[in-house]
Prior knowledge:
CATH class: Alpha Beta
Strand content: 35-45%
Helix content: 10-25%
Amino acid sequence: xxxxxxxxxxxxxxxxxxxxxxxxxxxxxxxxxxxxxxxxxxxxxxxxxxxxxxxxxxxxxxxxxxxxxxxxxxxxxxxxxxxxxxxxxxxxxxxxxxxxxxxxxxxxxxxxxxxxxxxxxxxxxxxxxxxxxxxxxxxxxxxxxxxxxxxxxxxxxxxxxxxxxxxxxxxxxxxxxxxxxxxxxxxxxxxxxxxxxxxxxxxxxxxxxxxxxxxxxxxxxxxxxxxxxxxxxxxxxxxxxxxxxx
Length: 246
């Protein structure tokens, strides 16, 4: 079995040190094999990915993205993958973007696992709403799936900024894909501290097994409780997926 967690870690918003502690505490308790992170902040002396890797004892692979001044500080809001074993290979994937959306990427990495070699993509599709936003998310998804194509199993994990039934995710409803969304029907991956889509499930883990005899065995919402300091980890909750032989 492989345990994969995805979490949007909300840049440097809120009580950042306490939130990083809460994320590290939660991940240490969950003992995941692979963790996909989005909105991974680097700037002003803060670097979320190496901090969380050191706190959990996991290896880190990351890519900077969405460079801008936040609170007057030049920074990046990128992607990272924490893992129990080092990545065999990693790939930064550029996706279609707009000036309003600004410099999004995805991060793919290959891992040797008990279930065989696995390619995992941490992604964060556009947050924009209104005319053309769904089409932009669809284009971003198609681009990263094409760029991450491989002969073995492929996992997409992250903040899709869309409900599973949204038209922009139609690519993933083909029979070869399996998603955590049906396993979490009625659940929310947003805690509601901030954001335009409270109380909906927009964070997903999706598997294309190909010829490999593996499948999604279970899923649950995680990292949705305060840490020891009484602070919630993020404005998102996490999703944990269990992959196993079938």
